[in-house]
Amino acid sequence: MRFSILGPLNITDKGRPVPLGSVTQRALLGYLLLHANTVVATSRLLQALWREEPPPTARKIVQNAISGLRRTLAEPDGDRSKLLVTHAPGYVLRADPATIDNCEFQELARTGRAALAAGQWDEADRHLRQALALWKGPALADLVEDGYDWPELTALQNARHSVLENRMDAALAAGRHLDVIGELEAVVSTDPLRERLCRQLMLALYRSGRQAEALRAFRRTRAALVEQLGLDPGPELRELERAILDHDPSLVSGGTAIRMASRGTTAPPPPGGAETAEPSAPAAAPGTPPDTAAGPGRTAGGSPDRPEDEHKRVTAVFVRVDTSDCSVPPEVLDRLLQQVRSTVRQQTCLYGGRNHGSMGPVILSLFGTAQTQEDDVLRAVRMALDVAAYAEQGVRLRVAVSSGDALVLRAPATEADDEPVDVAGRFMETGLGLLLEAAPGVVRVCDTTRQACAEHFGFATTGARPGGHDVTVALRPALASRTHLPFVQRDRELEQLRWWVEEVRRSRRPHLVTVLGVAGIGKSRLMHELRRDVTGRPGMGCLVGCNRALGPKEPYTALAGVVRAYLGTKDDDPAPEQNGRLDAAVTDLVGTGPISAQLADALRPLLCAATGDEPGRHALADPERRQAVFTAWRRFVEELAVREPLLIILEDLHRTDDALLEFVGDLTENVGSLPLLVVVTARPELVNRSPYWASGRRNATTMSLEPLSRTGIEALLSSVARPGSGAHGAESYATLTEQSGGNPLFALEYARTLDGAADDDPPRSACVRPRRSGAEPPVPPRVHGIISARLDTLPAAEKSLLYDASLFGSPFYELELAALSDRDPEEIQECLRSLERREFLQRCRLGPELGSVEYDFVHKLVGAVAYSRMSHARRAEKHRRAAQWLADHSNRPLTLLVHHCRQAVGHTRDANLSVKDISAHVCDILIGAGQQAKRRRVPGAARYCYRSALEFCATGDPRWEVLRRRLYEDAKSPV
Fold first, then answer.
1. Which family does it belong to (predicted)?
2. Mapped to the 3 state alphabet, what secondary structure does 672-686 carry?
3. pTM (predicted TM-score)
4. DSSP characters for 548-575?
């Protein structure tokens, strides 16, 4: 049996839940589990169950409850006294600590703290993360709801907070400040009195270049301490504030968070710091490509926990300040330039980009360098349009946008900052050329940018330079779900949603349905069909909101969309018209009076987006304003549901922040008994977010959309086939069906790319080819962007392992991955399990060796895109390592060995590096493999290795003659 108390009380026996009895039995078992393997006196049990006033029959009730628990916990052999034992002066629950999640939590926490004290940041982060993952909610949450409030539960919750703080220290010391900001902001907003968490948040924000937000976090915590406790912040928090104001260089040190974690303690220095000896690197094998040419500290293998140089699709926004219409002194000009730079920085942050710097009047912003978003190009163009409208004191801006493939160069491993330090790509030169042609106040874009935004903007092709286009007008994009196409193989899911519509209408009780599915699987189309079905029936309202998620500038468009759908307005309607309709609608719902004005004023920020007090922050970033809007929106929905049963559809909720996720998750719990059905669509990444509501909610259901079958994809492709076109023949259908992996969007994008059915289709050169063979069709840019964005949601260690797996294709073994890096096998297994949970990988079957497992990509395109993002030098080194490992394992196919040898040499050549050393090295590998085959008396395999080695052996090399002689002798000898 396994006992779980870190959340609702739960017992499982061989994976099956064990039903528990009355509340008294559950409380008794929960208290004994809190003191497992310890004698608990009966008097303590009575006090725990009834506090100070136990009933006269309390001891009899406890005895009966103990008897019931023994029957529940009885082993198959009938021994009921094995787990729950009577031991004077009470009882003891004897259980293996490994079967109790609390004991496992405590052990992982101890291991993590020990690693933290030893300066092993990655090891500490791994153990502490595992410990926190055991929690499924507040400890014994179901008993707490029944009124039990034991001191042990408070202590356990404090231990959870302590582990979280230790994990944040480990992550900050390892330089992963960007990864923890979101989690820290959510925790600090919930518990603002924990100064240690506030220090960690301030440090993470400062290291991410968000100094103003770090100081704002300090002010919020100070205000909470003064208001609730009448105390000032502690000395460490005040010292950190002063250090931020002074830009203290020590704040960028990886070990700062550890040294400030607790008063009076000193932690070991961080790895790679001045006080730690740098371990000597292993000697490179002959032929290893010098990947360090990318910069000092970079290696082909790289640290698995740090981002490495990558090929990415990047969009650059070039801004040039034009002061030809104003004549001012240099000091005034400098102030004008500073104002423009500040404006560009603010707009870049609002749309989720990164400021790359400036030189004189030219300012550069980049999108897609740190974390790829599938709408990076759209974000960049909208930001460029906002910037181009700037006109103050005679200053006009010329703006150009260019997109393309780039090598994103990261900081050396000795630096604490994980931010990109530079990008390299031809599109940068293109962008500079477009900037020279751009007219003031006009945004000029390249061909690639125009193709990516053709559905959203109008363009005019002007200028002497070919490939330049001016953005003329913003268009309303076509419906993403492609409703003109047949509705294929989703009837079962639609019927389930129809059932919930009728159930909510009948029971008049709220319910939340979450529809999960990867990008392009058909969530939006399913919602379109549901909406059409519901709106065609009388007596049921339907409102839809979709989250566009174009950065913090538009944080809650899903909620705004619901309000606008009821008002009948659009987001680009004039503000007076939207305000007038809002006032009229609210008055119609609640009547006149103070409540009407309060409700309308609270909803107005949703319709008329405003910028907050600080640069780069939306008005709703303030927790008080946000909570007021949430409360008003819930009241608005309640008033609608009182009038008639209501269906609300919120799409793409995985793009929202944790505050909105928590609000939506609690919505059906807080609206009371109203006929309200909330249907949410999101991608599978949502389940990894802490506010996710799938478990432990009574009025919640989750359904997942699976890939379409081969027949479904073929039916979909048949509907878009052009008459008389041979591109969609039987062979093309088979290829597209296999490549799409059952994803309808992927299949349609492949069809458009190969057939060129639309005028704005990208040329084949714009598509990323997954492999060198050319036998497979290229990956369409849109598909590549979707998968690339999903890859960037992974932690650095898991993404690095996925890159390694892409070298082997499908399937592969965990033993093969160990050959490509110096990671511990247990760490590799943990990453593989995590990638399996995130639906990147799947297990095929057990491997040939004891304990080995064979893995495959859930979608083969994931491996293709992951492979394409590695630099050529890194691919060459990985292929060399793979070849060396395969040569030492004679049970692997020789064709695979030769493949990796060829790839190692080919990618070294593509990296514009000398192939002399790597060719000699792979030649030695193949000769050694041939000699092993000859010793095993497999002459055919030996000849194959020798012939392949000749490919990499120069004619003047002495080994060339040796190989020719061996091949001649083997041909003469009998087999």
1. Belongs to the AfsR/DnrI/RedD regulatory family.
2. CCCCEEEEEEECHHH
3. 0.62
4. ---STTSTTHHHHHHHHHHHT--TTS-H
